[in-house]
Amino acid sequence: MRASVAATRASINSVPGPGELGCYALSSYETCAGAAAQICVSDVQQTLLLALVQNPAPGSLANQGARVQAGLAQADTALLAISDGLLFANSKKVSDGQGTHAASILGAHATVAAAAGS
Predict the structure, then answer these.
(1) What gap in Å lies between CA 116 and CA 102, rounded to an integer?
(2) CB 10 within 8 A of CB 23
(3) To bridge 20 with a disulfide, which of 16, 32, 52, 57 should be the other Cys (CB 3.0-4.6 Å)?
(4) Cα dihedral sign for 24, 25, 30, 36?
(5) Cα–Cα distance between 66 and 108 in angstroms, integer?
């Protein structure tokens, strides 16, 4: 928890490192309205994903943490498949990747929601 607080303070009060750029943008200059909303969504996702990776779950939630990490890894693999499908005009690969990505993110979200409720 201390590492998370320190990283957040660093991103707000000083020059951010690469891992704090999303947080820094959100806290200092971004306007999250209209066309810029998608950029803010991306920055929030980047900030949350980095927080998950840099601050693993405590021992009591290790199993749920491992499931979340596995879901995020599957989502990353799906994004690579989508990119590959777009690059080579393979609509089936894009479609399959989108389905896998959505299912992986929903699974990770469900695991986090269940752990938060416990």
Answers:
(1) 21
(2) no
(3) 16
(4) negative
(5) 10
Q: How many CB atoms lie within 10 A of CB 34?
A: 7
What DSSP designation does 34 have? Answer: G
Q: Which two tokens stand for residue 49?
A: 């994903």
Determine the residue type at 51: A
pLDDT digits (tens, 9 = 90+) for 14-61: 565 666 666 666 666 666 667 777 777 676 677 777 777 777 778 888
pLDDT in tens, 92-117: 999 999 999 889 988 988 888 888 77
Residue position matching structure tokens 């900030």: 47
Dist CA 25 CA 103 (whole Å): 29
- Candidates 39, 3, 1, 2; CA nearest to 21 is 39
Query: Considering only CA atoms, which of 117, 18, 104, 118 is closest in space to residue 69?
Result: 104
CA geometry: angle 27, 24, 108, nearest 5 deg? 95
Residue 30 is encoded by which pair of tokens?
């971004």
